[in-house]
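Technical appendix A lists one of the benchmark inputs used to test multi-chain prediction within the project. The record comprises two sequence entries:
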Amino acid sequence: MSLLSRVKFLLHITRTHGIARRYFVVNGFDGALTMLGIIIGFTISASTDLVLIINACLGAAIALAVSGVSSAYVSEAAERRRELTALESSMIADLEESLHGDAVRWVPLLIGLVNGSAPLIISIVILVPLWLASAGVSLPMSPLYAAILVALLSTFLLGVFLGRIAGTSWLRSGVRTLSIALLTAALIYLFAGS
Amino acid sequence: MVSVKRIVLDVLKPHLPNALEFSRTIAGLGHDYRVHLTVIEVDEQTETLQVVVDGSAIDFDAVQTSINSMGGSIHSIDEVEVQSEVDAGRE
């Protein structure tokens, strides 16, 4: 069995496909909105030091990633252990050496990695305009506004992804998550900009 | 040498992997294994199965290890069919 097939199989027997997907969207959304908030905050402050902005955003992204991995790992490990104990009680057998035992060891790690990588990857994508500008690449607009646009686009795409999972209108779902991001931006301008 | 041609097992296993995945894994252990699985009883967390494996030379240890690795346990061997090579040659 290839590694990918084994991963799919372990997620299947623990019925955790949906959990991993949910974590990806939830924490990915967290990452996008956090970057949006920090970048808008710097826009309001009229700070032009790109290195400072990149470092602040990267620090937040890494913190989100570590928090995502550790929190999901700890909670999923406890859940999987509880389920294995219940299953062992029904089977009247030790399942540590079975696929179910493997799942208890590996699935929390996989879910933790999904939960942690989602905000990190999305944050890095949002930071691309800032990196390009700091590397001397000329952009058609201010790098901060370009990063805000990418952040809004990311939230829209997460909504599209959710719409496709639910089998509903991807446009409606995308617009809904985009509206949340726009509301966040409006709140930041309202409270931080005053 | 004696070859095992058929075994009928009473197996308890968790709901997952399901009956199809369970049978496929066992059938994949040999080049000519034929697996017939019947779900006898379904409980909240487990199911009781009758697993019939046919083949020219069944490796029982491999079948048992495979069942255990999928979280199942063999409760009993209900039927076996074995054949010695001498008998096979006379046929």
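Chain A touches chain B through 15 residues (CB under 8 Å). The radius of gyration of chain A is 20 Å. Comparable benchmark entries are summarised in Table A2.
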